[in-house]
Amino acid sequence: MALLELSGISKSFGPIKALSDVDFAVGRGEIVGLMGDNGAGKSTMVKLIAGNFPPSAGRIVLDGEAVQFHRPVEAREKGIEVVYQDLAICNNLSAAANVFLGRELKRRVGPFRFLDHRAMTRRAAELFADLKSETRPGDLVHKMSGGQRQAVAIARTRLAAAKIVLMDEPTAAISIRQVSEVLDLIRRLRDQGIAVILISHRMPDVFSVCDRVVVLRRGRKVADKPIAHSTPEEVTALITGAKETA
């Protein structure tokens, strides 16, 4: 049984139909690449899954239960986390402070409650160790490489015990060496049984880490097949319309 299953999903914004009758699924410990040109409907799919708005039509089933999200907090409570392209982390804070941003640990001293920096530093170190990242809890984000920043954002999803992580263009605008680091982080999420939906324009990344690739074009799904049974050339043809379906 799929961990997340979307059936007959459509979404309209006034006269604009962003998605039309799309079926999509991802299983535990599976990495699915979501590809398509600008305007294909990828961002709308991500926002639907992440709870930014409900679909106009269709059904979403998570862990065998029909769900409908109206706010991102509702999706997060069900184990869906998003790592956006801008990462939404604070440059002036440490790695540990970013991991716990909005979820800070506190300790009580008499009638007062204080931030438990020691406990947050210790837990952040454990999360980075699990991800085999060289990022240190006390490092300031503004001094980090792109790969280390991704590690901070991914560690935050692990803190929340995510079942599904949506990653929006995680390797955009970083160096080749850092791309390798980020792809390794994605593999480690998979190895821990977490489903990953990778939204990317980078064909080498998708074919390196994904189990399946789903291609959207003009709001419709035109392909959903195992990576082993496709090629970058075929996916490019599907994205551009040189090939209708696969």
Automatic annotation (TrEMBL):
InterPro entries: AAA+_ATPase, ABC_carbohydrate_import_ATPase, ABC_transporter-like_ATP-bd, P-loop_NTPase. Gene3D superfamilies: P-loop containing nucleotide triphosphate hydrolases (3.40.50.300). Transmembrane segments: none annotated. PROSITE patterns: ABC_TRANSPORTER_2. GO terms for molecular function: ATP binding; ATP hydrolysis activity. Keywords: ATP-binding, Nucleotide-binding. Residues 4-243 form the ABC transporter domain. SMART domains: AAA. It holds the Pfam family ABC_tran. This is ABC transporter domain-containing protein. It comes from Prosthecodimorpha hirschii. The lineage of its organism: Bacteria, Pseudomonadati, Pseudomonadota, Alphaproteobacteria, Hyphomicrobiales.
